[in-house]
C-alpha cells in the first residue's frame, strides 16, 4: 500500500505595501463630487492601489459608513481597511478595522491623462519597537512589520497583534498574536497569561483547539523549534 507523504504545515507571511489613505470631509456628498472630478482628470489614479479609509473625526452612523464604502466601490475604489471607526460601526459587510500604520508623505495628484503608477512596496526600514500603553480592544488590529510590539496591558478576544519581530504582552493574551510576520523565524511571543485564540510565528500557526490546556493561564514563551511551535512555561 502506497503511503502518502505528510502534508507540509500551512504557512502565511506578511508583506508590507504602501497604501493610500482616503480621509473624507463633510459634507461627504461634496467630497465625493471632488473625488469624481479627480477621476475625470486622471481616470487611472486609483487603479491597482491599496486604499485605507480614514473616518476619524466624522460623525457617521453605520448606514452612512456602509453607503460611503458602497459609493467608493461603485467608483472602483476597493477599501482594504477602515481607520478611526468604533466597533459599533463595523462588522459584517464592512472592511476590517486597522490601526498602527506608519504615516508617509502625501501622494501628489498626477497630471491630467497621466497613467497611474504601479503599487509601491515599502522600502526596508530600521528595526524599531512599537510600545502600546493601552490594552488592545476586541476588534482592533495592530500591525507593525518593522520590529517588535510590546503591549503593556492585555490583548482582548477578537483582536489581533501582528509584528515583524517578537510580541510581548504584559497582561493576558486572549486574541491572536502573529509574530515574525515579515519572515522572521527567530521571533518569539511572550505573555504573562496565556489564553490565545491563535498564535503564529513566521507563518506557522496553532489555534486554541490545537494548543490544549497545558499552559493556559500561565506565563509563557512561544518560539519555533525545527518548524514546530513550542510553548514553554516561564518560571
UniProtKB/TrEMBL annotation:
Keywords carried by this UniProt record: Cell cycle, Cell division, Septation
InterPro entries: CAP/MinC_C (IPR016098), MinC (IPR013033), MinC_C_sf (IPR036145), MinC_N (IPR007874), Septum_form_inhib_MinC_C (IPR005526)
GO biological process, one term: cell morphogenesis
Pfam families: MinC_C, MinC_N
Region Disordered, residue ranges: 93-122
Domain Septum formation inhibitor MinC C-terminal: 132-231
Composition bias type Low complexity, residue spans: 99-114
Domain called Septum formation inhibitor MinC N-terminal: residue spans: 10-70
Subunit structure: Interacts with MinD and FtsZ.
HAMAP family linked: MinC
Family of the protein in this entry: Belongs to the MinC family.
PANTHER family xref list: SEPTUM SITE-DETERMINING PROTEIN MINC
Functional note: Cell division inhibitor that blocks the formation of polar Z ring septums. Rapidly oscillates between the poles of the cell to destabilize FtsZ filaments that have formed before they mature into polar Z rings. Prevents FtsZ polymerization.
Entries under NCBIfam families matching the protein: minC
Protein's name according to its UniProt entry: Probable septum site-determining protein MinC
